[in-house]
Amino acid sequence: MSKDRNGLPGIRMASAPADRFKIGVNRGPAVTITRVTSVHPLGACTLIPFSRMSVIQETHLIQREDARGSLVAIEGLVDVAFDIKRIYYIHGTGPDVRRGCHAHFHLRQMAVCVQGSCRFVMDNGFERAEHVLDNKATGLVIEPMVWHEMYDFSPDCVLLVLADAPYDKGDYIHDYGHFLELAESKSSDSNRLVA
Ligand code: TYD
What we know:
Elements: E1 11-12, E2 21-23, E3 31-32, E4 48-49, E5 57-60, E6 63-66, E7 69-72, E8 86-91, E9 99-104, E10 109-115, E11 118-123, E12 128-133, E13 138-142, E14 147-151, E15 158-163, E16 172-173, H1 176-194
Antiparallel strand pairs: 1-4, 2-3, 2-5, 5-13, 6-7, 8-15, 9-14, 9-16, 10-13, 10-15, 11-12, 11-14
Thymidine-5'-diphosphate is lined by residues 86, 88, 90, 99-100, 167.
């Protein structure tokens, strides 16, 4: 049985501080992710099987405005539900370019379009959704085992990405067929557990 980085078999834990992290699908009505306090997989905590997680998770960041302009701060474990270990940004990407096209085994990330816009395809093997990122105060959470592709970059797009781990080539899944097989097997494991 596969285990995630928390040692939980095939199960994703929603660990975001309450109220600040929202799940929504394509800008539809948002709901707050349940805060998880227990660390035991079969204890008194909310377990969300992969196949039942919404593939689009938006985080609404606080934008501090005054006469001088606007400021958005992103603090690890405060504004994003993980400790930030790496930051990278993508810019100068042509309109016909497609980036990403992979999933990660373990990495958690949050993408913020700090300038311009781009589109995402987010796919957890069960749900596939397209999403526009065009707001400097909106983060898109990219959970482990979510296939993501970025495209339709505006000429001025600057896509900032925060990650919870250093760069690790071995954490990438580049083959979509392999990704689907892994997603299916993780779902079978978690469905067996919650049944
Ligand atoms: P790549 O993974 O192809 O980018 P994308 O996800 O947008 O398709 O990364 C491009 C190059 O940058 C590749 O040689 C790997 C390297 N890279 C790093 O060195 N560190 C990083 O944190 C990232 C994300 C990529």
